[in-house]
Amino acid sequence: MAKVLMICTGNTCRSPLAQVLLQKQHPDWEVRSAGVMAEVGSPAATHSRELARQLGMDLESHRARSVTPELVEWADLILGMTEAHVQALKRSFPEAAAKVRTLGRDISDPVGQSLAVYQRCAEQLEEALKAV
Q: N or C: at which end does the chain have fewer Cβ atoms within 10 angstroms?
């Protein structure tokens, strides 16, 4: 069983969506998410929760958390939404550099934008996660 950590900036938009999407693709994997600059305890963005609901997944109880040494150690694979996230993780956790990478492309942050923008983000994530 793989243990995958999804990383974005605030852990309210992209990484929670990526978490539920990857969990849906691989139900036997353990998938978690965190942010490099998370406001700890914040709920998932409204549009992320709505998209998860549409996909039969649940982000209602999600609360943002920061990347911690414990999470980094726990993960077999750490996926950043952008190259900037990957570089920040490698600087903060150089011992984990070998297990940190992007999804093959940068996934733009939809924060504060329309449901349609979140939908495009989810579509990009679904496509990118097929290669994981």
A: N
Given 13, 14, 32, 49, which residue is catalytic? Answer: 14
Give me the CATH topology for the region 3-129. Rossmann fold (3.40.50)
Out of 101, 106, 109, 120, pick the active-site residue: 109
**What does the pLDDT look like over 8-31, one tens digit per residue?**
999 999 999 999 999 999 999 999
Model pLDDT, residue 1? 79
Mark whether 8 is an active-site residue. yes
Query: What CA–CA distances, in Å, run from 131 to 20, 86, 121?
Result: 16, 17, 16
Q: What are phi and psi of 76, to 5 degrees?
A: -85, -30
C-alpha dist (Å) from residue 45 to 11, 15, 16, 112: 9, 11, 9, 9
**Domain coordinates of the chain in residue numbers?**
3-129
pTM: 0.95
Rounded to an integer, what distance in angstroms lies between the CA atom of residue 57 and that of residue 86?
27
Is 109 among the catalytic positions?
yes
